[in-house]
Prior knowledge:
Number of helices: 2
Order of helices and strands: HHEEEEEE
Number of strands: 6
Largest sheet: 6 strands, antiparallel
Strand order of the largest sheet: 1-2-6-5-4-3
Strand content: over 45%
Helix content: 10-25%
CATH class: Mainly Beta
CATH topology: Immunoglobulin-like
Shape: globular
Amino acid sequence: MFNFFEEIKKGVSGLQPNLLNSYNIINISGKILYIEGHTGLTTLSKEMISFKIKNGRIVVEGKNMILQELTDNTMKIVGEIVKVEAF
């Protein structure tokens, strides 16, 4: 069976394998960010949203961001997404 995320990961080089397998992020035109594999929200504001992932955290910066959907391991952020960084 075809798995979109697994096919993308096969083509990515230079990233740690354990980091690649711990989460998935889709950024749609800088307006929608969909995340799978988070382990908890740490910061929530209209300019910054940060959350934990296995072995690190992710910080999303932007303007007028809203956490539109949040489940145990997925989230959807909408707004003007300017920067996404993994630590």
